[in-house]
Amino acid sequence: MAAIATVLVASACSSSSSSDSGSKSSEVLSKDGKGKKITVWLMDDAQKQWNDVVEAAKTQFKAETGADVEIQWQTWSNYTTKLDTAMLSDNAPDAIEIGNTQAAKYIDAESFVDLTSVKSKFDNSDKWLDSLAASGQSADHSKTYAVPYYAGARVMIYRKDLFEAAGVAQAPTTLAELKDALAKVKAANAGTANFSALYLPGKNWYTAVSFGAGSFGVDNVIAKKDGENWTSTLSDAKFVEGISTWNDLQKQFSVGGTTADETDQDALMAKGNIAAIIGNGWEVGSVIDEKNGNPALKDKLATIALPGAAAGDPTPAFLGGSDLAVPANAKNPGLGATFLQIFTNTAQQTALAKHAIPNAKNLVAAYKQADPANVAAGSAAEGKTWFIPNSPMWSGANETALKNALSAIAAGGDPAAELKKAEADVIKGLNG
């Protein structure tokens, strides 16, 4: 990755794009598009679910700039390789969608136009979802290179029928209430083999770290920037406290095993011996899928934000999603930025909210109103959320170190000791 970043920096620095932080707004945003056509890369999720939003943005863009838009639909498979090639070419697209966990690599390599000087010209930029906005910024959060597009948040998906049969009439709102509810559900299903009142497999690090963030706080989760280097927060006493809470829950209520992760949890829940899982809101659809799930559970599932220490203060959720950026070597960077400005304006984001969590807190209400099933994920996104260290050096190796530590903890290891071991690998990776 370091080698790629070095080449990308060289390419970006040779670009003629006027994208430095001192650029004037008129240079970063352009409406001089008569007779021109820009190219935009978007994931085919939009084509399948909110193509009307894309078309509305294209129409408004044409009216305001005179330029046409060619959408080139993409898939996540091998997308990083395709992006690497595009960032090195002299024919990059004028605007792109990027996963929020991918953004730091290209930001560090100076492969995106600096949008800091025009951030205030993007609708609701002062209300962007915290973790999604952070993923498009420099490591010190002083500059903006990518615009939040849409988000997904993890929630607790549970069997209403099993909870009600166990005497739990109301959804839990605190960790104490959750533990009490799970104890009742566990007792009521003691005769079911391999039953999990709450499925928490040992290597589901997204869920475990959420509990860590619940005690430690959402800023600087896992690691923090200290000058030019990163230092770990994994062994902080408050973070360890949160991981210990997760560990207690998985020991008492889960038979997920110490070496499994969340990959198969939807299919396992569909089989009927799991009362609750922690997953993305859309996983409800996977659980009840006609081909691979159990459609009979359709009216038996509900979602809530994962309860926290106090009512109204849920456990922080990892916020995934997509950002939008303008490649530094795009032929029409100013038009590309203007298209993103229009594509993420209030009107388009409100329309998108029928399908996904929009990019700003003040628009999440539209998402929750679109479907009662959206309320939990929307509330999670509005609340405290966390994100991985915003470093180009974050990689699968860091995730593996965390997974291995959590697996060891789930198998009986001391949380403080195992996290201390993991932080050496995580920091070594982050600091190259």
From TrEMBL:
Stored Pfam families: SBP_bac_1
Keywords from the named record: Signal, Transport
Keyword Cell wall biogenesis/degradation among record annotations: no
InterPro entries on file: SBP
Family statement: Belongs to the bacterial solute-binding protein 1 family.
Protein name (record): Extracellular solute-binding protein
Organism: Kitasatospora phosalacinea
